[in-house]
Recover the amino acids of this structure.
């Protein structure tokens, strides 16, 4: 089995863990804490995520690309890693000082000392995981194993220690400590690949600053419309509205992980092709990547829309009935996020077109701020949904335009029509099954029926992506 196929398997394991763990955690904490308690936890997680984006300085994207270029030379690998990581932690120290000053002299997390302290460990743990390094050297196995360990530890401690609605702070502390432990393990393990006995005077920090600066601005822009939505909603509405919005956006983000996780796997490969001037091969990969997004996202959108009521009832309970409509409205985000990931990360970043990506997300972020203020003030959580959809549509359109100018690739219109047609067959199938089953049993049986129809249809239409990547490998296993 070649390295790319192994990494694809481990990347799918990572995606499965990131999908499965919230399906266990979220029903428990939503029922334990209710909309208000869940709103408080969601707010501090959104705040920490925003600070991670600020503190990471654009390095999670930049690091993958630069590390992948020197992964076969231990000396250059060690030098590049040290240059990047020292820039990273110098900046993180500054961010921590500003954050400490902010929480000490503002009403943010007022009276929540444990959550304030835990947030520092949470941020440090995420940044300390240095996934960009392991993605750059294409060791997805380690990332998958550590992530599985963190998630498992969080779940075990959560069930063992949380027993009341007032312990929302304990859940966040458990999450923060588990994440910090994973980051510490990742940092220590990196020594296996590095020679750290380098003379620091030979390190060249300056060459990284310009590209990191652009990517940092990109991440700030992305944070405004992906992580700050909960923070804005808290200020322009209340904890209860945050509580209704959080399950819907969290479930959609879990769904998009299945699609966007492929991007981290392909960036090193595309960067390597570019370095060796294999532009035609890049076009082929991007075409397949777009087809993969359509292949997965279109049926997923229909299923989430069909199951919206059942998903909310099963996973968070009837207290969150208002989340059903929000979840349905958010479903297009699965497709838009998947496509913008291909055009932005896989094309523009890989081809060193960071500035074009910055223009796209920067404009989206600027538009999202007044949209959030106006729509959230007037429509609360529904306004938050409208704002994020409009913003993501603008960004996807712009990144597509710039990606086509950067690399000539075909848009798989015929395949898209097939996937749309087969996905809409789920509607009559679901109507029939809904007469006989409900909630979890309905979702289980109906998903099996829909998947069977979808895959049979792909086989009959002779879809090459399905035949080559699903059907043929299954035939070989059976032989």
């Amino acid at each position: 089995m070649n390295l790319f196929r192994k990494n694809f398997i481990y990347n799918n394991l990572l995606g499965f863990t990131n999908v499965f763990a919230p399906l266990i955690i979220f029903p428990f904490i939503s029922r334990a804490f209710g909309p208000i308690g869940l709103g408080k936890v969601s707010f501090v997680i959104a705040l920490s995520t925003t600070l991670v984006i600020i503190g990471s300085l654009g390095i999670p994207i930049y690091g993958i690309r630069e590390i992948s270029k020197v992964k076969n030379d231990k000396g250059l690998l060690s030098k590049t890693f040290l240059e990047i990581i020292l820039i990273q932690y110098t900046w993180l120290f500054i961010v921590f000082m500003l954050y400490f000053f902010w929480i000490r002299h503002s009403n943010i997390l007022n009276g929540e000392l444990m959550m304030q302290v835990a947030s520092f460990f949470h941020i440090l743990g995420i940044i300390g995981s240095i996934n960009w390094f392991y993605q750059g050297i294409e060791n997805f196995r380690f990332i998958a194993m550590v992530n599985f360990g963190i998630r498992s530890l969080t779940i075990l401690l959560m069930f063992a220690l949380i027993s009341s609605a007032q312990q929302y702070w304990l859940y966040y502390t458990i999450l923060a400590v588990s994440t910090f432990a994973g980051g510490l393990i990742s940092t220590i393990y990196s020594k296996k690949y590095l020679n750290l006995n380098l003379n620091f005077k030979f390190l060249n920090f300056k060459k990284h600053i310009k590209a990191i600066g652009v990517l940092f601005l990109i991440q700030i822009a992305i944070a405004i419309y992906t992580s700050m939505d909960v923070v804005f909603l808290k200020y322009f509405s209340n904890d209860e509205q945050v509580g209704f919005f959080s399950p819907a956006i969290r479930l959609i983000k879990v769904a998009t992980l299945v699609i966007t996780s492929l991007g981290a796997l392909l960036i090193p490969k595309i960067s390597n092709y570019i370095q060796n001037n294999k532009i035609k091969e890049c076009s082929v990969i991007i075409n397949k990547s777009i087809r993969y997004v359509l292949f997965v996202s279109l049926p997923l959108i229909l299923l989430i829309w069909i199951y919206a009521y059942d998903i909310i009832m099963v996973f968070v309970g009837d207290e969150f009935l208002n989340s059903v409509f929000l979840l349905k409205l958010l479903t297009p985000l699965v497709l838009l996020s998947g496509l913008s990931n291909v055009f932005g990360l896989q094309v523009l970043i890989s081809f060193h077109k960071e500035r074009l990506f910055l223009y796209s997300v920067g404009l989206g972020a600027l538009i999202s701020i007044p949209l959030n203020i106006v729509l959230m003030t007037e429509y609360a959580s529904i306004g938050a949904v409208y704002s994020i959809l409009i913003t993501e549509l603008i960004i996807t359109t712009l990144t597509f335009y710039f990606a086509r100018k950067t690399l000539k690739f075909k848009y798989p219109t015929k395949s898209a029509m097939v996937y749309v047609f087969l996905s809409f067959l789920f509607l009559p199938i679901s109507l029939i099954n809904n007469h006989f089953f409900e909630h979890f049993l309905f979702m289980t049986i109906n998903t099996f029926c829909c998947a069977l129809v979808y895959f049979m249809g792909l086989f009959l239409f002779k879809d090459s992506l399905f035949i080559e990547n699903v059907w043929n490998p299954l035939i070989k296993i059976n032989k």
